[in-house]
Write a structure and sequence with these properties.
The radius of gyration is 56 Å and the shape is elongated. The chain has a six-stranded antiparallel β-sheet. It contains five helices and 44 strands. By secondary structure, it is an alpha+beta fold. It folds into five domains: 22-166, Immunoglobulins (Immunoglobulin-like), CATH 2.60.40; 171-292, Immunoglobulin-like (Sandwich); 300-425, Immunoglobulins (Immunoglobulin-like, Sandwich), CATH 2.60.40; 435-550, Immunoglobulin-like, CATH 2.60.40; 583-644 and 704-747, no CATH class.
C-alpha cells in the first residue's frame, strides 16, 4: 500500500520548516492583507458561501468535496455578498484565493480573478456568483477562502470562509445505467457493470473487497461476468476505478410489471493508516432497483396543444370515440399539437404513422422539416428502450363539419398500435345563445333623454367544456355620439370591452344616451360578447344590433320650421346682396352691336350660332357646333354626325315653330280686327235712322290698337364665365344680372 511513511513525513516537515522560515513573513503579510476583514468596518465585510451549482444564496452550504470526483461533481458555486453596492459599474475585480491549511502554515492552492460573474441585486447590496471547477490534483485536507472585491474608486472589500474540506479518502459506486432503475425483461438475462471509483486524494489509495450474492432475490439470480481481475481484493488509488461485470438472470418467479430491489454485492473499502491499522470507510451491501418491462409494448403517446388548452395521454386501443371531447380551435380552421412517443418495451422499435381520416392537408413537423405523412414514414425513425421521440402535427380542416374527427395511429414493430383521435370545432356557439336583450329597438321621447335597458348573459353552460377557457368580455361598438354605461360594473361599454366574472350568468343594466341624432332621427349600435382566453387570441364572439329612434314631437317640428324659415330668410338676403353687387355688364364693348356678338369666340355670330358654349380652340361648323373628330370606327363617326345634325335640326325646328306661332298670332289679331270693323259699319244705317232727328255729325270710329307682341326666347345658355344669356325672337340679346334679364349693353 502506498502511503506517507513516518520517516518521509519527518523529512517533509523539516523541509517545510526551513522554507517557511524564509517565506513566513511574506505569507503572513498576504494573509493579513487578504484577511483585512478584521481591520475593516462592517460595511466593508464580504459574506462568502459555497454551494452546488444552482443553489440559492440562502440554501445550506456544501463544505465537503472530493478531489477526484466526477467532473460534474467538482464544480463549486462561490457566492459573495457585498453590502452597499448597487451598481455593477462600481466593481473592478473579484479575487478569490483558496488556501490549504497545513499543520505549520497555509499554502495557496488556487486563485481566481474574475470580471465575468452573475450579479443579483437585493435591497441591501449585490450577490456576485462564479463557478469554479477544481483540479483532481488538489490536496486532501482543510481549506479556507479569502475573497477581495476591488472597487473602481480604489477601495477594497474583503471577506473569508473557513470549514472547507477536501476528503483524503472517498469513493463512489455506480452502475452503467443512467436512470434510477435497471430495466429487465423476463425474455432474457441482463448484463450490468458496477464501477467503484476512488474519489479521494490522488496520493492515497484504498482496498476494495467485494462478495457476489448469487441468490439475493427469488426473482433474480446473479452470475459474475467477464472481469479483468482474478482476486476480490483490489487496491485502487485516487482517480482510479475498477469495473465489475454482473449478469442478472430472471427466474420463473420473475413478474413483469412489479418493481423490486436486489443486493447482488457486498462491498468493503478500507485503507491502512500510519500505525498499520485498517480503517474501513465502507462496509455495506450494494442495492440495485429493478424495473421489469415487457418484451413488446404499444406506444405510450402524450399529445399536447398549449394553444388550445389540450393535453391527453393515449395507450393502445382503449379510446372510446363516443367519449371524446371536442377541442375548440377558437375560430381557426387549423389545429396543431405536439406528440411525445415513448417506447416502454425492452427492444427498440421503428415508428410509423397511419390515418383513416379523410384529411387533405396533414403535415408532420420533425427536426425542422415539414413532411407529408408518406415522407415521414419513409424516414422509418427508431426508438430505443425507454426512448422518447417527439414531433408535431399541423392540420387544416373543414370548419363546416360539426365535430370534425381526426384519427391518427402510432404504430411500432409487430403491429403494436396506439390510436389517437380528436374532435375539432372552431366554436362552441353554433347552437347556443349566450347574450340576449328583451327588445332590440329603443325609443327616445326627448333629445337629452337617458334610457336603461337590460342585457342577459348566459355563459355558465360552457363551463363544463374541458378544452375551452370560459372567459368573456362585454363590448359595445357605436359612433361617438352614443354613450353607453354598464351600471352594474361601473364601466363604459366600448370596443375595448369589460371582463366579466367567470361561469356566472347575470343580467346587466346599461344606460344609453345620444348627444346628437342622425338622419331621420335614427341611430344604432352593436353589443356583444368577445371570447377572452389567456395566452392566445380568439375570434369567437356573439353580437346583437340595437336600433335607437327619436320620436317626433310638435316642439321639434316647430323648432325645425323656425330653423328653416330663418335659413330661408338668410339665403334670400344673401342672394339679394349678391345680385346687387354683381350687376356688372360681362361684356363692355361699345363698338359691337347686338347682332355682332360672338360669345364663345368660335367665328360664328350668336344670331347664327346653334352651340353658344363651344370650348375655345375647337373647330366648328357653319352652325357654330364642334366638329367631331373622325374615329377609326366608322359606325361611331356616323352616329356622331347624325347626332350633331339632329341637334342642329332640332334647334332650327324649335326656332321655326316659335316664328310660326308669332305669325299665326298676328293673323288672328288681324282677322279679329277686321270683323270688328265690318260689324261697326253694318250698324251705322240703323243708327242713322233711329237718330234721324239728331243734327250731330257722324264721327268716324277710332282705330283699334293692335296688341303688342312680347319677344319670345329662342335660345338660352351659360358661358364659361358663369353668365347666362338669351337670344330673343326680336334678334336681341339678353343677360342675367343676378336679379333680372336685361338687354345686352345695359347695366
Amino acid at each position: 500500500m502506498k502511503g506517507r511513511g513516518s520517516l518521509g513525513l519527518v523529512l517533509w516537515l523539516t523541509l517545510l520548516v526551513v522554507i517557511s522560515n524564509s517565506a513566513s513573513l511574506m505569507i503572513n503579510s498576504n494573509l493579513n492583507s487578504d484577511s483585512s476583514v478584521n481591520n475593516s468596518s462592517e460595511n466593508d465585510t464580504l459574506e462568502i458561501k459555497v454551494h452546488r451549482p444552482g443553489d440559492s444564496f440562502e440554501d445550506d452550504q456544501e463544505y465537503i468535496w472530493s478531489p477526484n470526483d466526477l467532473v460534474e461533481n467538482r464544480v463549486m458555486q462561490i457566492s459573495v455578498f457585498a453590502d452597499g453596492i448597487f451598481g455593477i459599474d462600481e466593481i473592478d475585480l473579484l479575487n478569490v484565493k483558496g488556501y490549504y491549511n497545513g499543520e505549520i502554515t497555509d499554502v495557496l492552492s488556487f486563485e481566481i480573478n474574475s470580471t465575468d460573474y452573475e450579479a443579483n441585486f437585493t435591497d441591501n447590496g449585490v450577490i456576485l456568483t462564479i463557478l469554479y471547477t477544481y483540479n483532481t490534483d488538489i490536496w486532501g485536507g482543510n481549506y479556507s477562502l479569502i475573497v477581495n472585491l476591488d472597487l473602481i474608486d480604489g477601495s477594497k472589500m474583503s471577506g473569508s470562509l473557513e470549514k472547507l474540506l477536501f476528503n483524503e479518502y472517498d469513493f463512489q459506486i455506480s452502475t452503467d445505467n443512467s436512470s434510477e432503475f435497471i430495466y429487465v425483461c423476463g425474455c432474457e438475462s441482463k448484463e450490468i457493470t458496477i464501477t467503484m471509483l476512488n474519489t479521494g486524494d490522488s496520493d492515497n489509495g484504498f482496498f476494495v473487497n467485494f462478495t457476489i450474492i448469487e441468490r439475493s432475490s427469488k426473482e433474480i439470480s446473479i452470475d459474475e461476468g467477464e472481469n479483468d481481475f482474478e482476486t476480490t481484493e483490489i487496491e485502487v488509488f485516487g482517480g482510479e476505478s475498477i469495473d465489475l461485470n454482473l449478469i442478472l438472470i430472471p427466474t420463473e418467479e420473475f413478474e413483469e410489471g412489479r418493481k423490486l430491489s436486489i443486493q447482488p454485492l457486498y462491498v468493503e473499502i478500507y485503507y491502512e493508516n500510519d500505525e498499520g491499522e485498517l480503517v474501513y470507510i465502507h462496509q455495506e451491501y450494494y442495492t440495485i432497483s429493478i424495473s421489469p418491462i415487457e418484451q413488446i409494448v404499444s406506444p405510450l403517446v402524450s399529445v399536447t396543444s398549449s394553444q388550445f388548452n389540450y393535453a391527453e395521454n393515449f395507450y393502445g386501443n382503449s379510446q372510446n370515440l363516443d367519449e371524446i371531447e371536442t377541442i375548440f380551435t377558437l375560430g381557426r380552421a387549423w389545429f396543431n399539437s405536439t406528440y411525445e412517443v415513448v417506447n416502454s418495451g425492452y427492444y427498440s422499435s421503428n415508428l410509423t404513422l397511419l390515418t383513416n381520416s379523410n384529411v387533405i392537408d396533414l403535415r408532420i413537423i420533425y427536426d425542422n422539416m415539414n413532411l407529408t405523412l408518406s415522407q415521414f414514414n419513409q424516414m422509418n425513425p427508431q426508438i430505443g428502450q425507454n426512448g422518447q421521440f417527439s414531433f408535431e402535427i399541423y392540420l387544416n380542416y373543414d370548419v363546416t363539419i360539426i365535430d370534425f374527427m381526426l384519427e391518427l395511429s402510432v404504430v411500432f414493430d409487430k403491429y403494436q398500435m396506439t390510436n389517437t383521435s380528436f374532435k375539432l370545432s372552431d366554436s362552441p356557439l353554433e347552437s347556443k345563445q349566450i347574450i340576449s336583450i328583451l327588445d332590440n329597438k329603443i325609443s327616445f321621447e326627448q333629445n337629452d333623454q337617458t334610457k336603461t335597458f337590460e342585457t342577459i348573459i348566459e355563459t355558465s353552460s360552457l363551463s363544463s367544456l374541458n378544452y375551452f377557457e370560459n372567459e368573456w368580455k362585454l363590448f359595445c361598438t357605436s359612433s361617438n355620439n352614443i354613450d353607453i354605461e354598464i351600471v352594474d360594473l361601473f364601466a363604459s361599454c366600448d370596443d375595448e370591452g369589460v371582463s366579466l366574472p367567470v361561469d356566472v350568468d347575470a343580467t346587466y343594466k346599461l344606460d344609453i344616451s345620444v348627444s346628437s341624432w342622425g338622419l331621420n332621427n335614427i341611430e344604432s349600435f352593436e353589443i356583444g360578447l368577445l371570447h377572452n382566453p389567456s395566452g392566445i387570441s380568439s375570434s369567437i364572439s356573439q353580437i346583437l344590433t340595437v336600433s335607437l329612434e327619436l320620436a317626433e314631437t310638435s316642439d321639434n317640428d316647430d323648432q325645425n320650421d323656425d330653423t328653416q324659415n330663418n335659413n330661408s330668410q338668410d339665403n334670400n338676403t344673401d342672394n339679394s346682396s349678391d345680385n346687387t353687387n354683381n350687376t356688372i355688364d360681362p361684356i363692355d364693348d361699345n363698338n359691337q352691336t347686338n347682332l355682332e356678338i360672338d360669345v364663345d369666340n368660335d367665328g360664328v355670330l350668336d344670331t347664327s350660332d346653334n352651340c353658344l358654349d363651344t370650348k375655345p380652340g375647337e373647330a366648328v361648323d357653319e352652325f357654330g357646333c364642334t366638329i367631331l373628330e373622325q374615329d377609326a370606327n366608322d359606325e361611331l363617326q356616323d352616329n356622331g354626325n347624325d347626332q350633331q345634325e339632329a341637334e342642329a335640326t332640332s334647334s332650327k325646328s324649335e326656332e321655326n315653330n316659335i316664328l310660326l306661332y308669332v305669325v299665326l298670332g298676328l293673323v288672328i289679331a288681324a282677322i279679329v280686327g277686321g270683323v270688328l270693323v265690318i260689324r261697326s259699319r253694318k250698324s251705322s244705317p240703323q243708327n242713322n235712322v233711329m237718330q234721324s232727328t239728331s243734327n250731330d255729325p257722324i264721327m268716324p270710329l277710332p282705330a283699334i290698337p293692335m296688341p303688342t307682341l312680347e319677344p319670345v326666347v329662342l335660345q338660352q345658355w351659360t358661358d364659361g364665365n358663369g353668365y347666362s344669356w338669351r337670344q330673343m325672337s326680336d334678334q336681341s340679346i339678353m343677360w342675367w344680372n343676378g336679379s333680372e334679364w336685361i338687354p345686352y349693353g345695359k347695366n
